[in-house]
Amino acid sequence: MRRTILTFFTAVLLVLLCTLPAFANATEPPCFTILVNGAPEDLQITVVTPEGVRQELHPVKRGWESYFSFYYYMDGNYLEREDVISFMLEVSTKGENYAFEIPDDIRQYNTIFHLDLSAGTLKEAVLAGRNALLVAMRVSITLVTEGMVLWLFGYRTKRTWIVFLAVNLVTQTLLNLSVTGVIPPDGYWWFALIFGEILIFLAEATLFTLLFREKGRPLAALVSLCANGISLAAGAWILSGLPL
Fold it and tell me: Residue 154: enclosing H or E segment and its boundaries?
C-alpha cells in the first residue's frame, strides 16, 4: 500500500512539472488584447494616436471568442508604454460607435480587456468562471473519449472505473489548467499540451498497471497508451478551434 501511495504522488508530481514557468527567447507578447464574446462580423476596433494615426486590429477567432491584439509597433516604429497610454480605442459595429481611453495603469504586456458590446463597456477583466468552464468542458471531453477506449477493451468492474475517473480527473485537470488562459492563443500552448500528455501517459500507465485488477498489467499499460494517444489527437483537434 505504501508503495502504491508513493507511486501515485510521484506520478502527480511529474504532471505538476509541466505547469512550472520557464523563460526563453520568444516572440514579444502583445501590449494588450481585447476579448469579445460573439463578436459580429462587422466589428472593427482601431487604435488612434493623438496625432490621428490609425491602426485597425485584426481578430483571431476561436469558438465563440474573438481576440484583438495590439503590439508595440505602429507605422514601422517601436512604441513605449507611455505612448500607448495616450492612445484611444475606436469601436464600431452595426452603426454604433464607441470611444475608450486606455487606462494609464495598463501593464507592460498581456493586459486583457473584455469588451461588452451590449453594455458598451471595456474592462480589464476576463469573465468570471471562464477558465473553470473551459477546463470542465475539455476534461469532460477527455473522460468520454478515454472512457470509450476503456469500454472497448472490455473493462467493466466498478473498481476499474473508479480508478480511471479519479486518476483522469486529477491529471487532466492539471494539464488543462496549464494551457488555459493563453490569450491570445499562440503556438506555445502546444508544447505544454504535448509535454503534459507524455507525463500523463507515464503517470496513468503506472497507476493503471498498479491499481487495475482486470485483465492483467500489460493490457492496462496498453489501454493507457491507446486512450492517451486518441485523447491527444482528439484534444489537439478540438483545442485548435476553441478558446484557451
Answer: none
pLDDT bracket for residue 227 (50, 70, 90): very high
* Alpha carbons 69 and 33: distance in angstroms, whole number: 4
* Burial bucket for residue 146 (CB in 10 Å: 0-12, 13-18, 19+): buried
Say what angle helices 130-152 and 217-239 make with each other, to 10 degrees. Answer: 140
Residues 64, 71 contacting (CB under 8 angstroms): no
* Three cell numbers written together for 215: 485483465
**240 phi/psi in degrees, rounded to 5:** -65, -20
- In order, the DSSP letters of 175-243 are HHHHHTT-SS--TTHHHHHHHHHHHHHHHHHHHHHHH--SS-HHHHHHHHHHHHHHHHHHHHHHHTTS-
Instruction: Please tell me the pTM assigned to this model.
Output: 0.76
Strand, helix or coil at 41? coil
Question: What is the Cα–Cα distance from 114 to 116, expressed in whole angstroms?
Answer: 6
